[in-house]
Specification:
Elements lengths: L3 H6 L9 E5 L4 E3 H17 L7 E5 L4 H13 L2 E4 L6 H11 L3 E4 L4 H10 L3 E4 L7 H7 L15 E6 L9 E5 H14 L7 E4 L6 H14 L2 E4 L5 H7 L5 E4 L1 H8 L14 E4 L6 H11 L4 E6 L3 E5 L13 E2 L4 E5 L13 E6 L6 E2 L3 H7 L6 E9 L5 E6 L4 E3 L2 E3 L1 H9 L4 E11 L3 E10 L7 H11 L8 E5 L12 H7 L7
Parallel strand pairs: 1-10, 3-4, 3-5, 5-6, 9-10, 9-11, 11-12, 12-13, 24-25
Antiparallel strand pairs: 1-2, 7-8, 8-18, 13-14, 14-15, 16-17, 17-19, 19-20, 21-22, 23-24
Helix pairs in contact: 2-3, 2-6, 4-5, 7-8, 10-11
């Protein structure tokens, strides 16, 4: 095959006049129209001197043209590097330097700040605004409509995605053509997507979830996307009747549930709701099913692997779990000290292997060797277990494990009990330094809108449920938990904020 990624996801639609993108202004962009624009951009990129294997960094607001550039990079054999629009200039300096990007595409308003960085690293710079204007579009308008697809192999690098970097410098995960293609095809089949589906897309495009899951699944199926620039509650409610499926993060669903307009009648035609990127509270599962009759499908993935597991489309979708390993994915639970594979219901470190697993970390051979075993298993850094029915449970990050007085404490175990208490909306348990125990658990909880939690009752319930050493030494009430752009709780921020609770 000439170019597996482009040929399978994009090239098959060159003559397809079916809708690909529905825009909020009423525009309908067909597959054929979309791919003509992508080919013009591919011609433009090559005319600028870019060669197969070169990296294109893009930091812009979500737009259809950003997808065009993704397709153009795939067709021209270039490496696509999407960057969060909220990154500062200092952060971008590191990404541009580290990735050795040959071109950066940015919003016009950021060009002045980025121009100096680009010049210092011999990097070209073009602009793309969220209103479909910009220098890259101006140049593409006069480019040929046809572009000869560049030959690439399944092992060639297709994308570079940087991890969040909560502990040190961000790492660039190298994703191959095969990595991206495997997930698109598998998830299309597992979640039963077809050309008749219209996916409500309010996720960002700089992240695996919105780009390499949501978009690639629709491309693989030949379906359509209701394209929203961002999450907007009013727009979501307005557009849901036109859609058959939705992918989101937990905050999408909690905000919908808090709105009286969101009811069973509004979504009675819907086929599927998917949640990921952060754990979904059991309470949200229950409330969502009660109001809509739908059970949210939760799955598990990460930057380095795309998707690893999923609850079943047909079958029991269990709250508090992320389902079973996807076809072609091997998943095991390992004792991090001994390397021994653990039995059902034993807690350990999750390792995965499959066509979805990345090639390694860009320019970090030692880090790659430390986390990617010779047998192909990737050490995820997540703690979990597999129950007797084969469902995978995520119990937190390895770095979140609390060792207090020599005893292991798994935050998720505490959080599940705390989240069930009256007046508690959600919780986060962290380990903080302690003079006697080394570290000790602290619970940070967000109260429900109309009910103040009774801490005395909560402590009494913890005494009944958990061994004494697992009890939090302190419970702190806050208005909200710090989260990243994908809704994950940033425990590193909490640990830093409360690090002196017991040591001063």
């Amino acid at each position: 095959m000439n170019n597996p990624l482009y040929d399978n996801l994009f090239g098959v639609h060159v003559k397809n006049d079916a809708p690909f993108l529905y825009l909020l202004d009423g525009q309908i962009i067909t597959y054929r129209k979309f791919l003509v624009k992508s080919a013009k951009i591919a011609n433009t990129l090559i005319e600028m001197g870019l060669k197969p294997g070169d990296c294109v960094a893009i930091q812009v607001e979500k737009s259809p043209e950003m997808l065009n550039i993704y397709a153009a990079c795939a067709q021209a054999g270039l490496v696509f590097l999407p960057l969060n629009p909220s990154y500062t200039v200092d952060e971008l300096k590191y990404f541009i330097e580290n990735s050795e990007a040959r071109l950066i595409i940015c919003d016009e308003k950021n060009k002045k700040d980025l121009k100096i960085i680009a010049e210092n690293h011999n990097t070209l710079i073009e602009t793309l605004n969220n209103n479909s204007t910009g220098s890259i579009i101006d140049k593409a308008n006069s480019a040929p409509k046809y572009f000869k697809t560049v030959a690439r192999s399944k092992t060639d690098l297709a994308a570079l995605l940087y991890t969040s970097g909560t502990t040190g410098k961000s790492k660039g995960a190298m994703l191959t053509q095969a990595n991206l293609l495997s997930n698109g095809n598998v998830l299309m089949s597992e979640w039963q997507f077809s050309k008749n589906d219209v996916l409500l897309h309010a996720l960002p495009l700089f992240h695996t979830h919105g780009l390499f899951v949501a978009t690639n699944v629709i491309l693989a199926a030949g379906g359509s996307i209701m394209f929203l620039p961002k999450f907007n509650l009013d727009e979501i409610i307005k557009q849901l009747p036109k859609c058959s499926a939705m992918m989101g993060v937990p905050t999408f669903y909690t905000r919908l549930l808090a709105d009286d307009r969101f009811n069973k009648k509004l979504v009675e035609h819907m086929r599927l709701f998917v949640s990921g990127s952060a754990p979904l509270l059991s309470e949200t599962h229950i409330q969502f099913e009660k109001i809509t009759g739908h059970r949210i499908l939760e799955r598990y993935g990460m930057t380095e692997t795309n998707m690893n597991t999923s609850n079943p489309y047909d079958g029991e979708r269990r709250a508090g779990t992320v389902g079973h390993p996807l076809p072609g994915v091997d998943l095991k639970i390992i004792d991090p000290k001994t390397g021994k594979e653990l039995s059902n219901d034993e807690i350990g470190q999750i390792e995965v292997r499959g066509p979805n697993v990345f090639k390694g970390y860009w320019k970090m051979p030692k880090k790659t060797k430390a986390e990617l075993r010779e047998n192909g298993f990737f050490i995820t850094g997540d703690l979990g277990k597999i129950d007797k029915d084969g469902y995978v449970h995520i119990l937190g990050r390895d770095k979140d494990l609390i060792i207090s007085g020599g005893y292991n404490i798994y935050p998720k175990e505490l959080e599940e009990i705390l989240d069930d208490q009256a007046g508690v909306l959600e919780s986060a348990v962290i380990g903080v330094p302690h003079n006697d125990f080394g570290e000790t658990p602290v619970a940070v909880i967000v109260q429900e809108t109309e009910m103040v939690p009774d801490l005395k009752i909560i402590n009494n319930n913890l005494i009944k449920s958990l061994a004494r050493y697992k009890h939090p030494k302190k419970i702190i009430l806050v208005d909200e938990l710090p989260r990243n752009t994908m809704g994950k709780v940033q425990k590193n921020i909490l640990r830093n904020e409360y690090k002196d609770l017991f040591t001063n």
